[in-house]
Amino acid sequence: MKVLILGGDGYLGWPTAMHLSAAGHDVAVVDNYLRRSISRDEDVEPLFEVPNLHWRSRRWEELSGRHIGVHIGDLRRWDFVAEVFAEVRPDAIVHYAEQPSAPYSMLNRRASMLTLSNNLEVTANTIFAMREFVPEAHLVKLGTMGEYGTPNIDIEEGWLDVEHNGRRERFLYPRQAGSLYHTTKIMDTDLLWYYVRVWGLKVTDLMQGPVYGIDTDECAGHDELRTFFNYDELFGTVVNRFVVQAVAGYPLTVYGKGGQTRGYLNIRDTLQCVRLSLERPATAGELRIFNQFTEAFSVNQLAEMVRGAGARVGLAVDVEHLENPRKELEEHYYNPVHTGLLELGLEPHSLTEEVLAGMIEIVTRHRETIDRHKIFRNSRWA
Amino acid sequence: MKVLILGGDGYLGWPTAMHLSAAGHDVAVVDNYLRRSISRDEDVEPLFEVPNLHWRSRRWEELSGRHIGVHIGDLRRWDFVAEVFAEVRPDAIVHYAEQPSAPYSMLNRRASMLTLSNNLEVTANTIFAMREFVPEAHLVKLGTMGEYGTPNIDIEEGWLDVEHNGRRERFLYPRQAGSLYHTTKIMDTDLLWYYVRVWGLKVTDLMQGPVYGIDTDECAGHDELRTFFNYDELFGTVVNRFVVQAVAGYPLTVYGKGGQTRGYLNIRDTLQCVRLSLERPATAGELRIFNQFTEAFSVNQLAEMVRGAGARVGLAVDVEHLENPRKELEEHYYNPVHTGLLELGLEPHSLTEEVLAGMIEIVTRHRETIDRHKIFRNSRWA
Question: Nearest Cβ partner of B120 from A78, A120, A152?
Fold first, then answer.
């Protein structure tokens, strides 16, 4: 099928493009390099340089014989959105085109407003473009497990059946997030759920946990096709950061007590989940929601695993508990359902010391370029 | 106390300004006349002309001896927001500054995007300005009963206690609205609830039903101080529209079966509710939510009451059931709690045939200016 990936330059966007292309789909990507410009502006460039999308698309075509269309522009501009949708006429859209960093969204007023306006206007333009150009298309939207926060009851898969004063209703599972970024994802959900009901759109919302990993099958042996790998506080997810800290001899930065528990997944599993969702689409008027993670860990558990993986390759890894710059519960109940994607056929990759040791090995090759100043800047929530 | 009213030119904004000024508060208003320009652009000007805010503020001062500060500008622009907050340093903010029309928000893509961007950016700027200039101030935000939609269970006052698999949690009452406008109000709530938790803001969210009425105590005998009175499909609320339709001999336009039930209130009660909320503020870190209406009616009941009021003054009023241009349930369960404001001291004005006859009398004086083409344009949801 013809798949348009919004945010195709990102950590997940580009690997998804290669994965879907390799699986036989006709792929086009859109990006405005927003994350690159923020990374440069905030002095948090990734571990190694990543060629632009045009270059990577050509390289992918040389290696695979398969074309990936590239459209560079800002999805907040309707003229650009209309041009792309009219030209590509996708059967499905994968929407990653959001400012994805929680700490960046809390950095200052301008960063907050950029996050809010960018994320909501891109989602709204995507909805309007589907309505106008491809009303039958299926939208796969990346949500986040962070939308749910850490409630004191089990987290269901998107919906909650409520019995109240003898009557029953099914609602969107109540959401209360821990950053402005995560809150914009809740607002996305509100918007999508409204237009699913009123216009009968087909939408799958993937409530994803933090992703870790570097390589995917499609870039194996071709380092030049690797995706971004951030190890800083703004764009680096926790496992990726800890791996770099271990290699750099920088103590693992655990915020507060370290009991914060989340559901994690390997980047290879993100690609599987997106492909499985595309290949078995939502129906008209359906907002289908999956909780997209494979294993839950506390930050302390992750730190211990990275310490163990480091020991295997002779790295002495320290763990340091810092005053928590975020506002979040450091010990809490956490029991989210995540069966939907397994039922669709997901075959999870587990997070093991072997997997971490493999990441450590790749990062060690880039050891000289690690900038210790990028690792922790204490971006505070309050 | 020093009260800053955002959206002080609107149907509720100006009467609130006079009411709070008369009650001894030091009032300033902000507006960019957005609703005036939309009314002109869409050919739905109100029943009579309304002088600008500078003129009305001078007139109010002549009559009452009390000053109302006027600030004209766009609250989406941070430079303007910062200037106003730094100058006024309010103790409390009343936030009406949103595009308030559900049908306008569904009119076309540009109207939708204006509604989305305007409403969310103004709310976000208000939050950031409170944080920077007046972190102790109390925000009274106008939400809407429409955020809840029409669930099949009782609607509680903002919050819902859920028991699930043997554990308990209190959540924001789940919201699912019936228009993009109402959805932007849900998104406002998400944003406010997040910043109440992370920054300890003081916020009261008034979940208001449709308001009706023309005069308030403060403009009695001074027609030149009257607020906007729209009777069109975009900005006219249903009771106000029906009164004009009765006077114009235009059949009352009931959408579909007419069983749509909502909670209504007199404009005088809006002013009471806002004042009572201001005078007994929320505490730091509290999002206090009230359901702000006094009586629930179906559209059929309203039509019958207007027909009855018309008969008293010799008007023969017809009722016409039209194909519903909206997407909504036309028969549904509806049982919302609304005790919080009564406990604060609200003394409700009931909707009676006498009240409607009084409105009919005022509208009859403007009978010649009713433009029948403005009444119904069939702005469709889907």
Answer: A120
Task: Locate the domains of chain A by residue range.
Answer: 2-374
pTM of the predicted model as reported, rounded to 2 decimal places: 0.97
Give the integer Cα–Cα distance in Å for A203 and A206.
10
d(CA B4, CA B71): 10
Contact B174 A190 (CB under 8 A): no
User: Chain B closest CA to A120's CA: distance in Å?
Assistant: 8
Asked about A144 being catalytic, the answer comes back as yes
d(CA A230, CA A46): 4
CB B360 within 8 A of CB B244: no
Q: Does B320 touch chain A (CB under 8 A)?
A: no
Q: Nearest to residue B75, comparing CAs of B36, B29, B110, B113?
A: B29
Q: What is the mean pLDDT of residues A114-134?
A: 98
Q: What is the ipTM of this complex?
A: 0.97
Nearest CA in chain B to A119: B117
Q: How far is B300 from chain A (nearest CA, A)?
A: 24
Percent of chain B predicted with pLDDT > 70: 100
Contact A197 B153 (CB under 8 A): no
Q: How many CB pairs lie under 8 A apart between chains A and B? A: 120
Residue range A2-374 forms a domain whose CATH class is: alpha beta
Structure tokens at B203: 């916020």
- The angle that helices A109-133 and A78-88 make with each other, rounded to 10 degrees, is 40
- The end-to-end CA distance of chain B, in Å, is 46
Q: Name the residue of chain A whose CA is nearest to B119's CA.
A: A117
| Burial of B231 (C-beta count, 10 Å sphere; 0-12/13-18/19+) | buried
Q: Is B140 on the interface with A (CB under 8 A)?
A: no
* Confidence category of residue B150, pLDDT binned at 50, 70, 90: very high
* Of A104, A148, A185, A264, catalytic: A185
Chain B residues inside the 8 Å CB shell of A112: 124, 128
- Write the CB contacts of B126 (distance below 8 Å, at least 6 apart in sequence): B6, B75, B81, B93, B95, B97, B139
For residue A378, name the pLDDT band (cuts at 50, 70, 90). Answer: confident
Please check the confidence at residue A220 and state whether its pLDDT lies above 90. Answer: no
